[in-house]
Amino acid sequence: MLNKVPEVTIWFWVIKVLCTTVGESFADWINMKLGVGLVNTALIFTAVFVVVLAVQLRLKRYVPFPYWLTVVVVSVTGTLYTDILTDQLNVPLWISSAVFSVLLAVVFGVWWLRERTLSIHSVTTLPRESFYWLAVLVTFALGTATGDWTLELTGWSPGASVLLPLGLIAAITLLWKFGANPVLSFWLAYILTRPLGANIGDWLASPKVAQPGEPTGLDLGTFTTSLIFLGLILATVVYLTVTRSDVTETYEAAHAAHTTGDPRKERVALAGFGLLAVATTGLLVWAHGQPHVGPAPEEDNTSAVQMAPGQAVKKFPPAKVAALKNLASTSLKDARSGNAKGAHAAAQSLRDLWDADQASLQPLDQTGWTSIDAQMDKMLKTFGIDHSNPPMSPAQQEKELNALLTDMG
C-alpha cells in the first residue's frame, strides 16, 4: 500500500516551517495591504483549500508539489479561522485555545476509534487521509491561538518570540531520540511549527524601530517575505521531486521502521513531556508578571492635545497615510450606503493596518500618533471592534469616521 504522506526527515520540518511562514505573511498582505478584509480573505482561501484538497485526495501516492501546496493553503486557512474568532467575534485567545484543543482531541479520538492508528506513516486510505488533513487544519488553528495568546501574555518582541517554540521543538526532539512515542512527539512538534513559522514571518516583516529598547524586525514587509519564502519552498519541492528523498513507498516499510519502541523509555519520556509542560507554564506565568507592553487598553482615549487637520500625520510617510485614509473612506462610504458588513470589514482592516504600522509611525511623532490613535479608538468603538459594546448607529459611525479623516487631513 502506498503512503500519501512524506517521510519525516529534516526536509519535512524545514519545508513545513517555510510553508507556515509564507502562509502567515501572504494572508497578512492580502488582508491588510490589499484591503480585502479578514472575512473575505478567509472565504477566498477556504475555496482554494477545497480545490487543492480535492486534487490531493484524488492522488494515489505522495507527490511533493500538490501535497505541500495543500499544506501552504491549509496553514493560511486555519490561521484565518482563529483570526476571525479573535478580531471579528472578539473571542478571547484562551477560549479559542481551549476550544481548538478539545476539537483536536475529538478528531484524534474518532480517528483512533475508526483506524486504530494516528501515525502519518499509515495514511494509505481515503478515510485516514481525510482525518489527517482535518487534524492538520485544527493544529494550525490551535497553533495560531496558543501562539498569539503567548504573545499577549508576555509582550515578547517578534525576534524573542521565536525562541520559545524553537526551544520546545528541540526538547521534544531530544525526548523522541531518547525513546518517546513517535506519534505523540510528531503531533506536538507539528503544532509548535505554526507559532514558530508565524513568529519568524513577523520578525522578518516587522519594521525596524530606532528607539532603544523597542522590538525590531528586519523590515522586509509581508510581500517581500512571502516572495522569499515562496522561492525557498519552490526550490525545496523541486529538490524533493528530483531526489525523492522524502518518499516512503509502502505502509509496510514505514510501519516496520516506526512501530518498535521500549515501553519503559516511552513512560519516562511521557513524564518528560509533563515536566516540559509545567516548565513552560511557569515561564509564561513569570513572563506575564514582568513589566511589558501588552495590548492597548480598551478605553476611550480622548486626546488632550488638539491638533489642526493634517497636523497629526505631517511627519508620517504620505503613502501610509494615504492607505489609512483609503480604508477610512471606504468604511464611511459603506456606512452611508447602508452596507453595515462592508463598513465593519473596512474599519477592521483599518485597525489592522494602523496596528501593523505602529512600530514605524509612533517613533516619528509620539504626539501625532497618540492623537490619531485616540480618534481611531473612538471610531472602532462605534463598530464594536476591540470593545465589548455592540455596534452603534450608522450616524455615529459616520461622525467618528469623518473626524478621523479630518485629523488625517
From TrEMBL:
Protein's UniProt keywords contain Repressor: no
Pfam families reported in the protein's UniProt record: DUF347
Keyword entries, A-Z: Membrane, Transmembrane, Transmembrane helix
Region Disordered, residue ranges: 388-409
Annotated transmembrane regions: 34-55, 67-85, 91-111, 131-150, 156-176, 183-200, 220-242, 268-287
Protein name: Membrane-anchored protein
